[in-house]
Amino acid sequence: MSSELRYTANTQLEHLHARYAGTGHADVTKYDWITHQHRDTLSTIVGHPPLLSYLAIADGEAIGRTKFEMTERMLQPCGPPPKKDED
């Protein structure tokens, strides 16, 4: 692999990481990564009305109620963050 091609690939990857927060990097924790995944999933469900309607019908609730619950779950989709070790 030539150094120019490697530089271009690294530049594109850095641009991707800067543009999209959920793409991760070498220092991302498991909790942060899974939180991004859950938030992306919940925002996709809320942002696509047919999918939101499908879930509301499956749960037997109103669409507005399902949308509200999904939006509320986006705050802490995986529970509170784990305690950090102080070294």
From TrEMBL:
What protein am I looking at? Answer: Splicing factor subunit
Name its GO BP terms in alphabetical order.
mRNA splicing, via spliceosome
Q: Which ranges form a coiled coil?
A: none
What the record says about family reads:
Belongs to the SF3B5 family.
Q: Which domain of life is it from?
A: Eukaryota
- Tell me the InterPro entries matching this sequence: SF3b5/RDS3-10, Splicing_factor_3B_subunit_5
- GO annotations of cellular component type: precatalytic spliceosome; U2 snRNP
